[in-house]
Amino acid sequence: MAIPCLQSSILNKLRFSLRKDKCIPEAVEFMIQVIEDEKSKALWGPAADSLGSAAARGNIRAKAAIDKFKEEVESRKKGQDTKP
User: Fold this and answer.
1) CB proximity list for 37: less than 8 A, separation 6 or greater
2) Exposed, middle or buried by CB within 10 Å (0-12, 13-18, 19+), for 58?
3) Alpha-helical runs (H) found in the chain
4) Could you read off the pLDDT of 42-52 as tens digits, one per residue?
5) Does pTM top 0.70 for this prediction?
6) For 42, what's the count of Cα atoms within 13 Å in the CB-facing half-sphere?
7) Phi, psi for 45 (deg, rounded to 5)
C-alpha cells in the first residue's frame, strides 16, 4: 500500500469516482486493498462506505468485498465481547 498520507489522499479522490454512476474497477480494487490492510485501519470506514456505494450500483466485486469485511468486523466484535 501507499504511504499513509498519500494513501488517504488517493482514497479521497477515488471515493468520488465510486459515488458517481461509473464504478472504476481500479478504484474498487484500491478500496478493497485498503479494507484488507491492517495498517490502513484508520481508512477502513471511508473505504467501506465507498465499496458499499459501488455494491449498491451492482458492482459484484465490491459487494463480495464489503460482505466479507462486515463479517470480519462482526467476528472481531464477538471475539472482543468474550474477553474478560
Assistant:
1) 1
2) exposed
3) 4-19, 25-36, 44-56, 60-81
4) 999 999 999 99
5) yes
6) 7
7) -60, -55
